[in-house]
């Protein structure tokens, strides 16, 4: 398989009892997530593809939506409160779907009044952030899909979210070129507004220790904030090209930026620079 902006052919799909696995070909990947040895990818025609990284072939592949413009906008991998791994998909058909990561059976689905562009699950696996073609962002119960809070403040559609590892802070990225930070103990208003330069905030990631938060625009700019300075200290990375995604390494020592240019497509690695006096360090 070849991911990114290229099309790929899936040569082998392992059948799981009870699952609706299909053989798909020439899938153009729209989104991807990896956790604990499982990779899940979404497609521009509503596909979901899953692969265990330590096993050959593709474990599961299907079209979860057949509507027009049925793009799978986001996939997320999380655990239920009982400890079972699950895959959560967000689609333009206004649906969020939950798949069991062992059987690949769709165990639940939730409907919303607008196209869903992004979901993310809180570190305790109890809350689901739901963002889409609306200025409002929703917090829902991750088990039932019931909306428990409505986050108001953004001015346009939202595309990205991420939870601080402590589970108290949710960051949301919007077409209005801002990332808002919300304290889930009081969601009446955001506690901070972080501004980009030119475009929507399309990706947000925290380091595993919560020390840094990175947010990426669609092209050219990635911003890294020091959370211990109340997000007041920021480093800006200015590069050339469309940004496919960002990710920190598990040990927090590296930031990876995917560049989705057909000619200059690449994966950039930025390493953390340490200043050992006073145990102070920055990217």
Automatic annotation (TrEMBL):
WD repeats: 151-192
Pfam families, sorted: WD40
Entry keyword set: Repeat, WD repeat
Residue ranges of the TM segments: none
InterPro entries: WD40/YVTN_repeat-like_dom_sf (IPR015943), WD40_repeat_CS (IPR019775), WD40_repeat_dom_sf (IPR036322), WD40_rpt (IPR001680)
SUPFAM superfamilies, per the entry: WD40 repeat-like (SSF50978)
The name this protein goes by in its record: WD-repeat protein
Species per Swiss-Prot/TrEMBL record: Solanum tuberosum
């Amino acid at each position: 398989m070849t991911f990114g902006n290229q099309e790929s052919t899936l040569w082998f799909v392992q059948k799981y009892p009870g699952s609706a696995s299909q053989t798909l070909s020439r899938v153009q990947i729209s989104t991807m997530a990896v956790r604990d040895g499982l990779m899940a990818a979404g497609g521009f025609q509503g596909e979901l593809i899953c692969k265990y990284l330590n096993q050959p072939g593709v474990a599961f592949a299907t079209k979860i939506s057949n509507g027009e413009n049925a793009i799978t906008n986001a996939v997320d991998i999380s655990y239920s409160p009982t400890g079972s791994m699950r895959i959560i998909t967000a689609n333009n058909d206004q649906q969020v779907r939950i798949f069991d990561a062992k059987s690949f059976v769709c165990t639940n689905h939730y409907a919303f009044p607008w196209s869903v562009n992004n979901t993310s699950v809180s570190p305790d696996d109890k809350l689901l952030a739901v963002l889409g073609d609306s200025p409002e962002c929703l917090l829902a119960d991750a088990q039932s899909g019931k909306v428990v809070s409505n986050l108001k403040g953004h001015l346009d559609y939202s595309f990205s979210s991420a939870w601080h590892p402590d589970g108290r802070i949710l960051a949301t990225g919007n077409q209005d070129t801002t990332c808002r930070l919300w304290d889930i103990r009081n969601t009446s208003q955001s506690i901070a507004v972080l501004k980009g330069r030119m475009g929507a905030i399309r990706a947000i990631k925290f380091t595993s220790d919560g020390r840094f938060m990175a947010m990426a625009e669609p092209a050219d700019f990635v911003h890294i904030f020091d959370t211990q300075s109340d997000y007041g200290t920021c480093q800006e990375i200015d590069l050339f090209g469309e940004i496919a995604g960002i990710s920190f390494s598990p040990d927090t020592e590296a930031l990876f930026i995917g560049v989705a240019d057909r000619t200059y497509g690449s994966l950039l690695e930025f390493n953390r620079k340490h200043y050992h006096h006073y145990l102070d360090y920055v990217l």
